Every structure is written in C-alpha cells, then in structure tokens.
Amino acid sequence: MPERAKRKSLPLHGARIEDYAVIGDCETAALVSLDGSIDWLCWPTFSSGACFAALLGTAENGFWRVRPVDQIVARSRRYQPGTMIVETTFVTKGGEVCLTDFMPPRGKHSDVVRIVRGIRGKVKMHMDLVLRFDYGLTVPWVTKHVQEVRAIAGPNMTVLRSECMGGTAAELHGEDMTTMSDFVLCAGDQVCFTLTYAGSTEDVPVAVPVEDALRDTTEYWCAWSDRSTYVGKYGEAVQRSLMTLKALTYRPTGGIVAAVTAGLPESIGGERNWDYRYCWLRDTSFMLLVLMSAGYTDEAVRWRLWLLRAIAGSPGQIQSLYGIDGERRLMEWEVGWLAGYEHSLPVRIGNAAAEQFQLDVYGEVSVALGRTPVADDELKTPSLEMEAALIDHLCRVWPLPDEGIWETRGGAQHFVYSKVMAWVALDHAVKRHEQFDGGGDVKRWRKNRDMLHKEICVKGFNKKLNSFTQSYGSKILDASCLRMVLVGFLPPDDPRMVGTIDAIQRSLTKDGLVQRYDTAAMKDGLRGSEGTFLACSFWMVTCLWLIGRKEEATAMFERMLSLRNDVGLLSEEYDAKAKRMLGNFPQALSHIGLLHAAFALSGQWRPETS
Questions:
Q1: DSSP string, 587-602
Q2: CA-CA distance, 242 to 561, in Å (whole number)?
Q3: Is residue 607 one of the residues assigned to a domain?
Q4: Lowest-confidence segment of 205-214, 284-293, 373-382 by average pLDDT
Q5: Domain count, the chain
Q6: Domain range spanning residue 329?
Q7: Cα separation of 132 and 445, whole Å?
Q8: What is the CATH number of the domain that holds 434?
Q9: Are residues 355 and 260 in the same domain?
C-alpha cells in the first residue's frame, strides 16, 4: 500500500477537544492527542501562524504523529507529577511503549521533544511529520542532512533530529511531502525526536541534549508548582489548573493569553468560532487574583508592567484585549483554506472584539492594579496617575451602553454587569484615594459611585423575576450577575442576590450547568446556540457556598471536576447532552473559575475587591 494511502487510513479527525493535552514553554504551546498526534502548534509565539493546523482542518494542514503501527488495544495518559510533561502509554498485542512529550524552557530557540521508550515486548512504530506554515497553507522546502531534516518557508525554519538508544535506528526519510520514520522498540530501547524552530535567516540551531532538556523541564515545573500555598482537599485539581494558567503566560512580556487555540466552535457546525490567543484585561485580572491567592506574585508583578505598557496613552483608548506584546490592532479575518473543526465555519483569526467598548474592564483593571504588588520599575508612567486618569474618564463614559462581558455583536446595551464593574472601579478608587497623593477628584468619584449604585439597583433589578437581569429594563437573565456577589456590590445574603441566584438556577441552568444567557431570547448578532459556559457554573458554586448552601455547592463543584478530561484540563464550554467539550482549549477562564471555587470551598476565599 502506498504511504499516502497509509497516512490517510489513520484519520486525525476522530479526536475530540477533550482528547488533547497541552505542552508549552511559556511562549507558545502545542496540543497532543491521545493518538500521539500534535495537531496544533503556533510558532514562534502563541499568536503566530500555526505550523500544525490539522485541529482546524485535515491532515494536509499539518500534524506530527508518533504511534504504534499495529492496532492499539489500550492506552493511558498522564502528566508527570508537578509538570507539563505528558506521558502517553500505548499497548498492542506485541508489547507496550511510552511516549513522552514536552517543550523545554526556552533558551535561544524553541523545541518540541518526543521520547518514545519500549516498556515490554516488541512494538513496530511509525512517525510522520507534515509541516505546513501559515495555518496549514504553506508547504516548506525540505532538505535532509544525515539524521537531520530542515524545513524552510519564508521567515520560518524548523530542524528535525532523531537519535536512538538500542533497537533499530529511526531513519528519517521523505515521501509524498511527508517526513517519516519506521523503527522497532523492545523493552529498554529509546528513540528521541526533537523539532526546533528558528528564523530562516539564522544559523541552524544546535542539537538539543535530550536528557538534559528533560531534567531541566522537570526541575522548572516542579519548582514552580511547589510554590503553591493552597491547602485543601482539592490539591490535585488546583495544582493542575495553576500550571495550566502558568503555561498560558507569555514570559517575555508578562502577558497572559485566554487560550492556546483559535477557531474551536462553541457549538459543533456553528459560526461562534473565535481566536482566543490574546490577552483579555478581564480574564488576566481574574487570573492574577487567584494566582496571588496561591502565592504567585512574580506573575502579578510582570503582568502589572505589561498592563501599564499596554494601556499607556489616552484613557479613552483603553481596549478589552491586546496582543501578547501589547499590540492594539488585532484584525479579524477568515481562513478560507481550513475546513473547520468538524466543519464548523468560519475559522477566524484575530479578534474584532478589540474594537468594542466594554465598560467592565475598568473595574477589573482597577481591582487588579490595587491588588498586585507595585513593581520596582513603574516605567515612565506612574500607575497611580494612570489610575486617576482612567477613573476620571470612567466618570464620563459609564452612562453609555457597551457590548458587555460576552462581547455580543448585536449592538450596545446598558448591561448590568458592565455597570456593576464601573461601580467597582469607582468604589475602589474612593477607598484608595490617599494613594493618589491628593491628585484624584475623590468628591467627583464618590458622587458618581453612589449615583451608579442606586441606578443599578433601580434599573437593573426586575421585581417580578426577583432578580437582577442582563440589561436595564430587561427580562433576560444573565449568569454574569452572579459575579455581583463576588465583587462585593451587595452582600451574599442580600435578598436581591439570593433571588438572583435562585432565578438563574431555575431558568438558566440546564443539565446541571449554568448557561451564560438564553441565546434564543437575546439578539446577540449571531446565529445558532452554544454550549454551557463552564466558568458560569463555577461562579454558581462560589455563590452557593457564600450564601450558606454548602452541601449543594460541594456537590456541584465535584460534578464540575468530573467534566475535566483525563489530564485535568477544561475547555471554554461543555455540551452536556453529547458529553463533550466545546470552545477554545485549554480555557483560562474555566480554570480560573475552578480555582476561585476551590479556594472558597477550602475556606481560603476572599472578595475579589478586598
């Protein structure tokens, strides 16, 4: 049988979102499937074009797979304890092998290392590598040099190397625009593949010492995970979520991306497919609060500096999201050559939400700046002066409608959560006025704060529903109103908040999970429906705990933990009927919600604004 037919006889599209694990070097990340295939990797950074894009297309759009040739009768997977190193064990009738995947802490270049080791018996193995730069479009020029294969296209260069300890040599050869290797592993044999990225104008990068790289990667992640101060019964889930958030940080600047992926659908076959490889002020503010709760202040300091650089300038130009280096222009476009995950189109790159007015970010930024330690170098723009300028601007714009936390595309409204977070920003500024050295217009801030609180309670609360609603005068419920408890707008036992929690449980909870809002009732500018947004259910867990319904909160939280995949990761949304994950992956906001809930249930919760 020709090699082309062999490759296509092993389709890549059987993988569900939950079938993936993530590895990364805190500058980019790759998704590895249960089948031993890397189907998504953007190089050299999170927001670069993907060189493996089979996740959103077909095998022809790029992948890298290592797996047994014979039928796999059993497989299992785990992260090595305290690390982002993935081990996948394959069992065939002839024996057993273990595939170890990781990305070492980046030096001059970025590497993906794959070590496959024989455990017992005798197993025939096959490796195939299809590199396609520019989101699966560009076929590189490939040349072979002894046990080294170089691929170049435009500014990109990769170098693939193999080395063998025992067994048959893993010779590299090319066929049908694919790099392949066939080898046999017996117990104790080991084959290592390394793929290194460099700019095409650079010298060819030197070979990676594999054992040293494995040791360095283990030490790096274990040292980081050991710093956690969390104490409680959910230690395993907390540790994995914390490490996942760390893997989403962009080390050079301190920015933090919302997810590794772009274009994964919120409903299979639907159009709600967005690019999340950017830094949302909202998400990263939530993230830093929980990281600091777990004892991680270095990330908070670095993000603070990133934030000050990103939002420096006119307060009227503040955006809800930025690029990893603080870029403002994130042009949204559609990738016409990708078929979409399970034919969910369009595949969007970039994100037009960067151009939206989202009022709530003022509150999240204010809280995060107030909670994060002051950096040694506050740049040329002192943070307190910037905060004062932002609050003065907020006094002018809070009466305006906005697109809201969910970045809807059906037109601006007076969203209740947006107004609440504007109030949070004003309240926070008033309470910290002495830190503004008398330069802040505290009298004006206090007047606006009190006026806004009253307005929200009158216009945002529906007496018939006994609940706060999505927008002023609306009858539509919205899970973002749960966060009113978490940010201290009203105390948890306030009858209006208890009523809101009850209303959302009755009308927005489906199959035990909380929806963001009813997509059929709200004109959000998009067709179709979506899965249930996992962060909302974690917000409900925390709210239930805070109002004293602790057994209910615990049961719901443990049900939520059961939705994680086999290595403890969560996507953005979940389809309870199909029992599968939806949306971009792994999703920071889902893991942030998990962590907030775990800290609450373990008696270590504190209000986000305190």
A1: -HHHHHHHHHHHHHHT
A2: 15
A3: no
A4: 373-382
A5: 2
A6: 226-601
A7: 54
A8: 1.50.10.10
A9: yes
Question: What would the mean pLDDT of 176-193 be, rounded to a whole number?
Answer: 95
d(CA 191, CA 275): 36
E strands, 211-361, in order: 249-250, 255-256, 262-265, 273-275, 279-280, 321-322, 333-334, 348-349
Closest listed residue to residue 25, CA positions, set 108, 114, 102: 102
Q: Is the separation of the CB atoms in 102 and 87 below 8 Å? A: no
Cα distances (angstroms) measured from residue 502 to each of 206, 464, 542? 61, 13, 14
Q: Are residues 191 and 84 in the same domain?
A: yes
Give the CATH number, domain containing residue 137: 2.70.98.40
Number of H helices, E strands in the chain: 15, 30
The rounded distance, in Å, linking the Cα atoms of 420 and 108 is: 45
Rg (CA), the chain: 25
The letter for the amino acid at 170 is A
Contacts of 360 (CB under 8 A, 6+ apart): 282, 402, 404, 405, 415, 417, 418, 420, 421, 422
Query: Rounded distance, CA 259 to CA 244, Å?
Result: 10
CA 426 – CA 392 distance, rounded (Å): 9
Q: Let me know whether 18 and 100 are in one domain.
A: yes
Whether 122 maps to a domain, the answer reads: yes
> How many angstroms separate the CA atoms of 41 and 37, rounded?
11
What are the φ/ψ torsions at residue 195 (nearest 5 degrees)? -120, 120
Beta-sheet strands, E only, within 364-466: 461-462
Give the model confidence (pLDDT) of 394-437 as tens digits: 999 999 999 999 988 889 999 999 999 999 999 988 887 766 66
List the alpha helices (DSSP H) in 184-234: 210-225
DSSP-assigned states of every residue in 450-473: HHHHHHHHHHSEETTTTEE-SBTT
Mean pLDDT for 462-471 is 98
Element (H, E) at 198: strand 190-199
For residue 216, being part of any structural domain is answered with no
Residues 6+ apart with CB under 8 A from 163: 147, 170, 191, 192, 210
| CB neighbours of residue 44 within 10 Å | 17
The dihedral through the CA atoms of 165, 167, 169, 175 has a sign that is: negative
pLDDT at 370 over 80: no
pLDDT tens by residue, 26-54? 999 999 999 999 999 999 999 999 999 99
Check if the beta carbon of residue 140 is closer than 8 Å to that of residue 133. Answer: yes
